[in-house]
Amino acid sequence: MDPDTDAVTLDELARHLRAQPALAAKAQIGLVRDVLGPASFVEGPGDDGAVVRGSSSDGDAGPGAQVVVCGEAILPAFVAGDPFGAGLAAVLTNVNDLAAMGAVPRGIVDTIVGTAELAREVLRGMREGSALYDVPLVGGHLTVQPGPASVSAFGVGYAEAVLSSTRVEVGQSLVVAGCVEGSMRADFPFFPTFEARAGLLDGDVRLLPRLAASGVCVAAKDVSMAGLVGSLAMLLEWTRLGVTVDLDALPRPRGVPIRDWLTCFPAYCFLLCTPPGRAEDCVAAFATRGLSAAVVGVIDDSGELALRSGDQRSAVLDLSVTDVTGLRR
User: Fold this and answer.
1) How far from each other are the two terminal CA atoms of the chain, in whole angstroms?
2) Which helix (H) or strand (E) element contains residue 137?
3) What pLDDT score was predicted for residue 2?
4) Residue 7: CB partners within 8 Å, gap ≥ 6?
5) Global pTM exceeds 0.90
């Protein structure tokens, strides 16, 4: 870790990560299982999207391509404070979720409730996101009324090979890949990289489907509100496997304290599991696009999610006994 920006011990960092409200909030997802019953992550609630089995007649999709659908509700406080940013985030979150499933984005549908002024700003942000990621807004719903606002969006795409947490196995390499050029928002734990990757974002998210189709990676998750470690815990939860993350190898922005980087929502950052012998191919694919990527650990059967720096190691969660979302077998 960088002594200029990291003034915490590894044990303190682990305690800080365990106490994150965004991680604790993921436990609320368990009520989905309570109502709908257990299901695999691909066929039911879980992962970053859901797969609709079937074939595609699309000209640029293979005959066995599978439809992937997903949806995101934007934090109401964020909608109220920055409706334009909320609209952009509504596109970003869905496009990233589709990419994390190995899917090429094909369309976004939105749902907006709020004043006409707010709705205009949200739609302006969605239009910006649509252009950045080259994904069309294909429809939606608008209710204009006073009072608390809400914004949700839903994405659809296709995947030739689905990336799923059900495919995480012992011996796979854990790769962290993303864009570390940008600066943290002062009012929200979000690390935007839109300016740094302007004109490149559409290709960035379409890289993951290509890696999935070629077998370079088999499981992935985008780093979102739960932060890097929280998102990693969700990736490992289904299989109850473990990993020790090498913080010294972790791609991260300069000048951002490690505790902030591990708990923020980066605009483009993914956790990927690669089969033995494919990690270098994965890292190289991101490097070719000018993105940062590195192997930070190897999946093991300990069930423990831990951090390492130098000769120090500290456990964050024991996934063999701890639920994150409750969506596990």
Assistant:
1) 35
2) strand 137-144
3) 59
4) 257
5) yes
